[in-house]
Records
---
Amino acid sequence: MTERRRVGAPAEAIAAGLDPEAVVERRAHRLQPAFQATGMSAFVALVVTAINTGVDAQLIARWWHAWRLALPAAIVAAYLFRPLAWWVARLLARWSRPRAR
């Protein structure tokens, strides 16, 4: 009888005896900035396009053009600024933690 593989669990991880969930978790952490940049760039491109050119029947076409240009830059920026963002987030978390009385 063959071992049933979990959806999303890499075969290499199972074969190597690694925890498949840990491998999936690491992959998700690596992909998260790209997906966040995709959503944020789509939203920002839509808002800026609507403000700059107005809302009419051609808005979606203009937005699509703007987003196609902005998306690669947003993904690159997300990965470039990820270490800085993590450092600032940790700094703020330490600074804003509740003080003992």
---
Amino acid sequence: MRGLSIRMGWWAAALRSGICGGEGALVAWVFFMLFAMSIGVVAGALTLAGLAFDPALILSISALTTTGQLATVAAEAPVRYSELGTAAKAILGGAMILGRVEALAVLALLAPDQWRR
């Protein structure tokens, strides 16, 4: 591992040299960051709709991963969908659609320069 530069960090050097899979690792990192940001945006929108932070986080993960049963088993007290307001249900509906479509497919549609490769 002599070629790894201390200045640019071991992770960047490993990606550049191909040790960690190169472009595949970069795509995985982008997907993870998009998923984490999606959870943050949906949880923030749910808190603005009046939910507490814990149920908002549980519901956003449940909606984005399309595991609706998570809402009833993840918290100490189950989160009931019937007790949610109209705004929260609309946000969760959008999050469920986003979770099914996948963020990378949306990125591919928004980047037509990459279609020819």
---
Amino acid sequence: MLRWLIVTLTETVGLALLLFAAGVSAADWQSLSDGERRILQRFEERWPDLSEAQQQKLLNGARRWAAMTPEQRQRAQEQYRKWQDLPPERRKKLREAYRRFKALPPEQRARILKARKKFRQLSPEQRRWLREQWRRRRLSNED
């Protein structure tokens, strides 16, 4: 589960870039700031066809993007490219795993995130060892 969470959280950063947000109706494209329109320019032609909820997500994402440092933007772009390179079935599984994670009680999500942070602080050798232990345990539970 920890490995799943690590992969899911990392890869969903790229997905978040697609979920930029917009809180205005389709007729209000011109009411967006110049910066927001620049970030969302690839959506301009489709803007009137997007639901208000989709527009809101896009605008919120554009605002987050504008607030990022260049390093954060580069990392987000790299994560998005990794996401795009995944097979559709893998992306589908990751989306479902993320939905399950978000449905967990806040305390359980916090425990998982804390464990993830601890895991990331381990040396590569320790992480490999734990992954192998997890794999073996999963295999023995399948029998």
